[in-house]
Design a protein that fits this description.
The chain is mostly helical. The protein has four helices and two strands, in the order ααβααβ.
Length: 104
Amino acid sequence: MTDLVDADEGPADRTRPPAEDAGVPEFWRRLGLPGLADVHTHFLPPRMLRKVWAYFDAAGPLVGTEWPIRYRWDDEARVAHLRRLGVRMFTRWRTRTGPAWRRR
């Protein structure tokens, strides 16, 4: 594992998450990780995904505050973005009919 303490910075500086996506790969590399796993992605059937996004757009009662959707892209664009960040594994919605939901 990579040493997290440098002579000119403390451990908190080395492990602070990046503020922007562009810094994510460097962040996990400094931690000595081979990549990331994202267990909270929203790859859902289109109709369900629209409902989730509409809920957050309306700042639903469980949220109570503005919570903009940053990655309102199609599945392919979101997967490509995850790959650029170094995400090696992520969750997705599983249906009994397989990928047919993507055609709706």
